[in-house]
Specification:
Layout lengths: L14 H16 L5 H12 L5 H12 L8 H8 L7 E2 L2 E2 H10 L7 H19 L1
Antiparallel strand pairs: 1-2
């Protein structure tokens, strides 16, 4: 075992898994079990997946109601049929549907809008890091 940590752990390629690997390596280096519960909590937070896109679309529809921008409607409908940014929607992916929605959702405002738009941006960022 070198300074990298246990020999059976090799750095993963996925961004989220790489962060988990770093946390485990630091815990191993410190050689203390007291930090293990903190590490487990950090891993749980890192590995939490996003809500399904169709769930997010349902929230958008219920909050935006009659103020829907006509250009955003097809993207909301696309999101309603998807669960993940990698899923196919006609010739586009879920990530394309998210981008299309965000580009056409400027008129959607309020607390829910800010939270959901931030969530969709985070999903895109995570998707692009893979």
């Amino acid at each position: 075992m070198g300074s990298q940590g246990p020999g059976f752990l090799s750095p993963p390629q996925h961004a989220g898994a790489a962060l988990i690997f770093q946390i485990l390596r630091l815990t191993y280096r410190q050689g203390t079990l007291a930090r293990l519960s903190q590490t487990a909590n950090a891993i749980e937070e890192c590995s939490m997946q996003h809500r399904p896109l169709n769930t997010i679309a349902a929230e958008i529809k219920s909050d935006w109601r009659t103020r829907l921008n006509g250009a955003a409607v097809p993207y909301i409908e696309g999101l309603s049929e998807l669960r993940d940014p990698r899923d196919q929607w006609f010739r586009e992916t879920g990530a394309d549907a998210i981008r299309g929605f965000l580009n056409n959702a400027q008129s959607w405002r309020g607390d829910v809008a800010r939270r959901v738009k931030a969530e969709l941006r985070a999903i895109l960022k995570e998707h692009e890091a893979i």
